[in-house]
Amino acid sequence: MNDDRLHMVRALVLAERGRGGTSPNPMVGAVIVDREGVVIGRGAHRYAGGPHAEILALGEAGERARGSVLYCTLEPCSHTGRTGPCAPRIIEAGILRAVIAVEDPNPLVAGRGLALLRAHGIEVALGVLREEAQQLNRPFFTVMRRRRPFVTMKVALSGDLRIAAAPGVRTHLTGPAADRLVHLERSEVDAIAVGSGTVVADDPLLTPRVAYRARPLTRVVFDSRLRTPPSAQLLSTLESGPVIIVTTPATVTEAPARVRALVQAGALVEIVEEPDRLAAALARLAARGVTSLVVEGGTTLHRAFWDAGLIDRVQMIFTPHVLGAGGVEWLPFSLLATPAPYSVTARPVGADILVEVYVHGPD
Ligand SMILES: NC(=O)c1ccc[n+]([C@@H]2O[C@H](COP(=O)([O-])OP(=O)(O)OC[C@H]3O[C@@H](n4cnc5c(N)ncnc54)[C@H](OP(=O)(O)O)[C@@H]3O)[C@@H](O)[C@H]2O)c1
Fold this sequence. Notes:
Blueprint: H1 3-15, E1 29-33, E2 39-44, H2 53-61, E3 69-72, H3 87-92, E4 97-100, H4 112-119, E5 123-126, H5 130-136, H6 138-146, E6 150-157, E7 162-164, H7 176-186, E8 191-195, H8 196-202, E9 218-222, E10 243-247, H9 249-254, H10 256-264, E11 268-271, H11 277-287, E12 292-297, H12 299-307, E13 313-318, E14 328-329, H13 333-336, E15 343-349, E16 352-358
Parallel strand pairs: 3-4, 4-5, 6-12, 6-13, 8-9, 8-12, 9-10, 10-11
Antiparallel strand pairs: 1-2, 1-3, 7-14, 13-16, 15-16
The structure holds NADP nicotinamide-adenine-dinucleotide phosphate.
NADP nicotinamide-adenine-dinucleotide phosphate (NAP) is lined by residues 155-156, 163-164, 168, 170-171, 173, 194-198, 201-202, 222-225, 227, 277-278, 296-301, 304, 328.
C-alpha cells in the first residue's frame, strides 16, 4: 500500500469516531503528515455543529503543519455553515499538498473547496480511496444526490422463510445477539419505519434500547387509512423521538377526528399524495433532516418500497425457528437477485445469520 492510501486509511478509521453522531453531516476524518512521514495531527468530526476534522487536525499539528500534507476523507468546505469554512484555514496553515478521497456532493461546496486550495498553490490529489469514503457516508451521499434518505429494508426470517407465525400474531424470531445488533443500529440511524399492519398486529415500541443513543430517533408509520390507535405504545415513547404518521389527503378529509386524536396523542401527521407517495414521503423526511431510514416491515410495506426502487440496502436475519405453513411469507428471494446486487455479505450473529445486500454502488 502506498503512503497516500495508508494515511487515507488512517483518516477513514478516524472518521468512524463520528458514527451515529454527525447526521445530517457526514463522518469525516483528517490526518496531517510532515515531510518525514510522521503523523502530526489527527481529527474527526464527531457531531453536527461540532468542529470539523481538518480544523482539529490543524490544531493538533500547530505550527508544524506548515509544509505538511493533509489527508482528508471529504473535500474541505468553502462555505460558512454552523462552523467557519475549512479551506481558508488550510491555506493559512501553510499546507503544501492535500490528498482528498472524494468531492463534497453538497451543492454549497461541490468542488469549490478544492478550487480554492488549488488557487492558493496547494497541490491537490483527489480520489484516493474514493469508493471507501463514499461507502462510509452512504446516507449523506444519498441525501445530497437523490434528495431522500438512504433506505435499509430489514427483516427477521424463520428457517422456513416466514416473518410471523400467523397474520396478526406478534412473533419474536431473533436471538439475543441479533437483538443487540438491531438496537445498535437503531442507535445510529436517523429514523425507522413500519407499516400500519405491523402497528396493528404488534403494537411495537420502536425505541432504541440496550445501546446508548444521544439524539432523538424518528419513528415513521406508513398509515394511509390512519389505523394507528392513539393508544398505540409508540405514542407513549415520544421522549425517544418524534412519531410521524404518513397518510393521504383523502383520509384527512374523510376522518378529521382520527387526525385530531393522533395529533393530540403527540403524532406529527404528514399528508402525501398519490402517485409516488413513498417517494414524496421520503423527500419530506429528508427535508426534516432524516438521512437514513430503516424500514422494519411488514411484507406489504417492504414490497411497496422494493417495487418503487427505493431500497438501497437489505438486511436479512435468518433465524433457526420453523413457523410452518400458517406463517406469514416475506418477499420472494428471486426479486432481490435482480438486478445483480453491488455486494452481498453474510456473518453469524449468535445463533442467527445476518445477510447484508447493497442493492447498488455508492452514489
Ligand atoms: N419478522 C420481521 O422482521 C417483521 C418485521 C415487521 C413486521 N413483521 C410482521 O409483519 C406483519 C405485518 O405485515 P403486513 O404486510 O400485514 O403489514 P405492514 O407491511 O406492516 O403494513 C402494511 C400496510 O401499510 C399501509 N401502507 C401505507 N402506505 C403504504 C404504501 N405506500 N404501500 C403499501 N402499504 C402502505 C397499508 O395500509 P393502509 O392502506 O391502511 O395504509 C398496508 O396495508 C405482522 O405480522 C408483523 O408481525 C415482521
